[in-house]
Design a protein that fits this description.
It is elongated, with a radius of gyration of 27 Å. The longest helix is centred in the first third of the chain and has 30 residues. It contains 1 helix and 18 strands. The strands form 5 sheets. Strands 12, 13, 15, 16 and 17 form a 5-stranded antiparallel β-sheet that branches. The chain has a 4-stranded antiparallel β-sheet with strand order 1-8-5-6. The protein has a 4-stranded antiparallel β-sheet with strand order 14-11-10-18, with no helix packed on it. The protein has 220 residues and is mainly beta. The chain folds into 2 domains: 83 residues; 92 residues, Immunoglobulins (Immunoglobulin-like, Sandwich). 20% of the residues are buried.
Length: 220
């Protein structure tokens, strides 16, 4: 009989603990808000304003995640520095701030994770069944698409990731058809914005034409 009483007590305690956890989780979910910020690490840290909404609730921010990893938990100051120095320069950042009630935090210096639009195709050339190009101003996570002109549209034939340095040189092998082929490049940055290179003609039976060193900025 005594063992039976103990089992019933344990069961009641277990149910109470589970019920308490459910209520706590529900309360946190009910009053939690999210702020999402994307950008690129350019060598500087962010500063975050953390308002105090009321004496009972304390400061607004509960958690700060960067690229899925918890970086800050329950900060107790009205302003704090979000240390990003562990990331390599040009790393794409996804920042999520969890805060309570209705007073939203603010980034004091959001411009430090916003790259300038200074991307350019410096040169593009086709020779010996290869396409080469040179760029400046690449930022963050990005890619290049190689497109070939068809009778009434542009067809993507290859793709490659960008290197992300100040000045970059690329080369890929082509599989041209006999006669004149028309190619161009499309650059897509981490925010989905795109730039096109000028089109270049390549005769598979002769040497190619090379595009000059002028700056191209025909952003889509």
């Amino acid at each position: 009989m005594e063992n039976r009483d103990h089992s019933e007590i344990f069961m009641r305690v277990g149910r109470f603990v589970i019920y308490t956890l459910i209520l706590t989780f529900s309360a946190q979910s009910l009053f939690a808000h999210e702020m999402l910020i994307s950008g690129v690490y350019l060598g500087k840290n962010l500063y975050v304003q953390n308002p105090s909404c009321s004496e009972q609730s304390g400061f607004s921010i509960k958690y700060v995640y960067v690229n899925g990893n918890l970086k800050v938990e329950n900060p107790t100051t009205s302003t704090f520095e979000l240390d990003l120095s562990g990331f390599a320069v040009n790393t794409h950042l996804e920042i999520k701030i969890i805060y309570g009630e209705s007073c939203a935090p603010q980034l004091i210096n959001p411009q430090v994770i916003k790259p300038k639009d200074n991307f350019n195709f410096q040169r593009i050339a086709a020779l010996n069944d290869s396409l080469t190009w040179e760029t400046t101003g690449e930022k963050g996570i990005h890619k290049f698409l190689v497109e070939k002109r068809t009778s009434n549209d542009w067809l993507i034939i290859q793709a490659c990731d960008g290197q992300g340095f100040t000045r970059n040189l690329y080369s890929i092998k082509l599989n041209p058809t006999s006669g004149v082929n028309v190619f161009r490049l499309k650059y897509i940055d981490g925010n989905g914005r795109s730039w096109y290179s000028p089109a270049i003609n390549y005769n598979a039976e002769k040497d190619a034409i090379e595009s000059g060193t002028e700056r191209f900025s025909n952003k889509e």
